[in-house]
Amino acid sequence: MHSPEHGIRIEGLRKRYGEGNTAVDALKDVNMQVAPGEVVGLIGPSGSGKSTLLKCLGAVIEPTAGRMILGEQTIYDNGWKTPDLRALRRDHIGFVFQAPYLIPFLNVTDNVALLPMLAGQKNAVARARARELLAALDVAHRADAQPSELSGGEQQRVAIARALANQPPVILADEPTAPLDSERALAVIRILNQMAAQYRTAIIVVTHDEKIIPTFRRIYHIRDGKTHEEAGEGRAIDLAPALA
Amino acid sequence: MISLAGRDILHAWSRFVLTGMGLGLLIGVTLSMAGIYRGMVDDAGALLDNSGADLWVVQKDTQGPYAESSSLRDDVVHSVRGMPGVARAANVTYFTMQVARGARDVRAMVVGFEPGLPGAPGELIAGRRITRSHYEAVADVKTGFAVGDTIRIRRHNYTVVGLTRRTVSSGGDPMVFIPLKDAQEAQFLKDNDAIVNERARNAANPALNRPGLPGLLEAITDAQSSNHNVNAVLVQIAPGLDAEAVAEPIRRWKHLTVFTRTQMEEILVAKLIATSARQIGMFLVILAVVSAAIVAFIIYTMTLGKIREIAVLKLIGTRNRTIAGMILQQALGLGLIGFMVGKTAATLWAPIFPKYVLLLPGDALRGFVVVMAICALASLMAIRAALKVDPAAAIGG
Q1: Strand ranges for B261-351 from DSSP E
Q2: In which compartments does the protein localize (chain B) (predicted)?
């Protein structure tokens, strides 16, 4: 389990696909810093490099150059600094996807407990951690249900609980509100903010969703492979309805 | 760690069980094919056991009486009885025919035997032994006859006085035992027209119908219409003697072919049913390949249906060996269900087969190992597909 004291910092990150005349620079100079407990938006048009950046941050593709620091650990510095990227993803990065992508053959508790179990925790400890998170996300009453028995909003809350299961310093949320209406989208953002504050997790939300962009206090625009930071509106969302 | 494979199976248990049942029926057919082969070997063993013989004395240079026709004069048995080491010897005839039972025919092997000697039916399950010299029969229960029924063999009716079990030919046909003399007559009996024609031909032949030799024509005709041949002499040797040591002098001095039990088993199993065994072997190979293809297809399809979940699992840090293990366990689970269904089905339908189906525990164990091995091999394609899934596929864009 990682203690998220430093969030995530990215310096001069570059990613080039291909070589020679066919080379494409998807990321040219990306700089970001997200503090523990902070939720930032990452927005940009299609093809701007959002997904590439997310995949680099998620340690599923290797950047070409730059530096990434996760918590106190430099994970990339012109090359991976950790030999086991799978363990890095499991223990230090949480993922929330556009669709919940829960494992359909595991019940709600085990969907969340799976990550601590994969990290080597005993089943009882992992399930206790899962129940704690489910309670925090107000879905404890569906702990024994199958994912197919949940509403869309409940599934997304379980997905957030799964992302938090190993208490990672950073959560990458890829269009988490895309399929939701305004009320539910705002509820998801409210939950992410609550969880970021409660668990001291840095959360990067990749989004196109105009409904939620005003809620971010800081936003990174990505265009032509470069990031530009700007202040967001940070609109209060305390009154958003619960995610049903 | 929770069993991902077990949870997936439980989640889609109906699909899994139905697939397993389909596979199981295929495995059941495979086990039955093996059982049919075992039944043929066991039938051959039962044939030799029921004869009660240690040696089979047959016509020289033949592999009779079961694999080839063999004909001996019925007085050969007397000289065989005089050979050193021979405890008991008896004439025996075998011929296969369609025996009428009501409106239907039953294919049966008719055995002519001498009561109380080798070749006689063994333990009876109903009725009594043959006590009269003519027109009584003991039948295997598989013929469908009951005690008191009448069997028509050639021109004579025989009353069934006793029933036996597991007395079958090497081809699995049930046996009907009748007295030797009746069997000799039945085996070579000509119809009335043929006898009349034979007599007319003899009478018209001046060499056979000589005026100066009264009685010659009748003697020749009588010899032509009677039979003093048998198919084999069954020999029991004195206790403690080596069968080959007793057989060799008979071969040498009587100019006959003699088979020991081992040699007769070799003829029956390696020669008589060898073609059938190869046929069954081919079926077994084809069924194994078909089973493997079905398991591979099912597991591969199931895996392709979970590509997104596998990508998510890999993204959140699941080891490749955990994912491979999940697919392998599912394939083995499918094999286990299939095997249980197949074994149950084969056991249930075995008695319905017209021929003896012998399901040996050893074959079932070997079948189980082969099924598991096939399932493990069949899962390789799905495992390969799963391991090629890019965890980045879980992230959009």
Answers
A1: none
A2: Cell membrane
Contacts of A95 in chain B (CB under 8 A): 312, 315-316, 394-395
* Under 8 Å between Cβ of A159 and A97: yes
Contacts of A119 in chain B (CB under 8 A): 317
CA distance B382 to chain A (A): 18
In A, minimum Cα distance to B308 occurs at A101
The residue ranges of DSSP E strands in chain B, in sequence order, are 55-58, 72-73, 86-101, 104-113, 124-127, 136-140, 150-153, 156-164, 175-179, 229-230, 232-237, 257-260
Whole-angstrom distance, CA of residue A60 vs CA of residue A94: 13
The full DSSP string for B155-179 is TEEEEEEEEESS-B-TTSPBEEEEE
Report domain extents, chain A.
Answer: 8-231
- Our CA-based measurement puts residue B296 at a distance from the nearest CA of chain A, in whole angstroms, of 21
Q: Do A60 and B315 touch (CB under 8 A)?
A: yes
pLDDT tier, A240 (very low <50, low <70, confident <90, very high otherwise): very low
Hey, what amino acid is at A15? K
Residues 308-367 (B) with a CB less than 8 A from some CB of A = 308-309, 312-319, 322
Taking the Cβ of residue B149 and every Cβ of chain A, the question of whether any pair is shorter than 8 Å is answered with no
Alpha-carbon gap, residue A96 to A159, rounded angstroms: 6
Distances (CA, A) of A206 to A49, A194, A223, B312: 11, 18, 13, 18
Residues in A closer than 8 angstroms to B316, CB to CB, are 89-90, 95, 114-115, 118, 162
Contact list, B314 vs chain A (CB under 8 Å):
86
The count of CB pairs under 8 A between chains A and B is 84
CA distances from B179 to A213, B69, B140, B388 (A): 105, 20, 15, 76
- In the prediction, which pLDDT does A3 show? 41
Our measurement of the distance from residue A81's CA atom to the centroid of its chain's CA atoms, rounded to an integer in Å, reads 21
Contact at CB, B309 and A55, closer than 8 angstroms: no
Ranges of residues in chain B whose predicted pLDDT is under 50 = none
pTM: 0.75
Quick one: which H or E segment has residue A14? Answer: strand A8-17
Q: Assess whether pLDDT exceeds 60 at residue A244.
A: no
**CA dist., res. B288 & res. B203, Å (int):** 67
Q: Which residue of chain A is at minimal alpha-carbon distance from B5? A: A105
ipTM value > 0.90: no
B308, B393 in Cβ contact below 8 A? Answer: yes
CB contact at 8 A, B162 and B127: yes
CB nearest B317 (choices: A55, A89, A146): A89
CB-nearest to A105 from B8, B319, B392 is B8
Average pLDDT over residues A227-233: 84
Cβ pair B58, B231 in contact under 8 A: yes
- Report the chain A residue with the minimal C-alpha distance to residue B1: A117
Q: Which residues does B343 contact at the CB level (< 8 Å), separation at least 6?
A: B27, B28, B31, B364, B367
The encoded tokens of residue B82 equal: 């005089």
Which CATH number does A8-231 carry?
A: 3.40.50.300
By the CB < 8 Å criterion, does A85 face chain B?
no
Q: Which residues contact B190 (CB under 8 A, 6 or more apart)?
A: B198, B225
Q: Specify whether the CB–CB gap between A237 and A186 falls below 8 A.
A: yes
CA dist A162 and B246 (Å) reads: 84
